[in-house]
Write a structure and sequence with these properties.
Distance between the termini: 27 Å
Order of helices and strands: EEEEEEEEEEEEEEEEEE
Strand order of the largest sheet: 3-4-5-6
Radius of gyration: 18 Å
Number of strands: 18
Length: 207
C-alpha cells in the first residue's frame, strides 16, 4: 500500500499476509480490511491489523461467498456492502453469510459502481445486460431511500468507469468513456468529450 502525504506518494511496506493482485478494497467500521482478488475465483479476503504495532497481522480469513459476480466493496450506513450483478449484499459475520441489502431494496439490477454524498444520498452506476444507466437514491429524514430513475436520464447508455464523485452539495462528477461529466442538482450536465477518466479523487492542498 502507498500513502499520499505532502504532495507525493510514499511507498509503504507490504501488509503481512496479502499476496497477489486486488481489484477492490475497503475498511469497515469494525477495523476489518476487505479485499477482492483479481484472480478468476474472485476471492474475498478479510484481514485485521494493529497499525500502532507496525501493521501486525491479527487475523486473516478467506470468506466463502457465493455472490453473483462482485463488482466492488463500498461503505454504506456505517457498514460495508458488496455490489454485484444482482444488486447489493451485506455480510453477517455471526452467520458467515451474505444477505441482500434491505436499505436499497429496489437495487436488484447490476451495480457497477456506487458512492455516497455528504447528505447520505447514494449514487449508483447500474447495468443489466448491455444496458448502462445511472440512478440516485435520495435519503429522507426518516432514513428511508427513494429511488430516482429520471434525474440522470441524460446519461443513459454511457460506460461509467469510476464511482460517481460528489464534490459538495451542488455537483457530482462522473468519469465515463465519453468524457468527464459534471452534473449539478438543478438538472444540467457539463461534459467535455475529449478525455476519459477511470478514477476520481480529491486532495486538499495548502497554498
Amino acid at each position: 500500500l502507498q500513502e499520499w502525504a505532502n504532495g507525493t506518494w510514499n511507498q509503504g511496506e507490504p501488509l503481512p499476509g496479502l499476496v497477489g493482485n486486488f481489484q477492490g478494497m475497503a475498511e469497515g467500521p469494525d477495523g476489518y480490511l476487505w479485499l477482492l482478488t483479481a484472480s478468476e475465483e474472485e476471492l474475498l479476503i478479510r484481514a485485521k491489523y494493529d497499525y500502532e504495532a507496525g501493521a501486525q497481522l491479527l487475523s486473516l480469513d478467506t470468506i466463502k461467498q457465493e455472490l453473483p459476480e462482485i463488482q466492488g466493496i463500498y461503505p454504506l450506513e456505517d457498514d460495508l456492502v458488496f455490489s454485484t450483478k444482482n444488486g447489493i449484499y451485506r455480510y453477517v459475520p455471526e452467520e458467515n453469510r451474505f444477505y441482500a441489502d434491505t436499505l436499497l431494496p429496489f437495487a436488484k439490477v447490476g451495480i457497477l459502481r456506487m458512492s455516497t454524498d455528504q447528505q447520505g444520498n447514494v449514487w449508483l452506476a447500474c447495468f443489466q445486460g448491455p444496458r448502462r444507466w445511472l440512478e440516485v437514491a435520495w435519503k429522507g429524514e426518516s432514513g428511508q431511500y427513494q429511488r430516482d430513475t429520471l434525474l440522470l436520464k441524460g446519461l443513459d447508455n454511457i460506460e461509467v468507469w469510476g464511482p460517481p464523485y460528489p464534490e459538495n452539495d451542488s455537483y457530482v462528477w462522473i468519469g465515463a468513456s465519453q468524457g468527464l461529466y459534471r452534473f449539478d442538482l438543478k438538472g444540467s450536465f457539463q461534459a467535455p468529450a475529449t478525455v476519459s477518466y477511470t478514477h476520481l479523487r480529491a486532495h486538499e492542498t495548502e497554498a
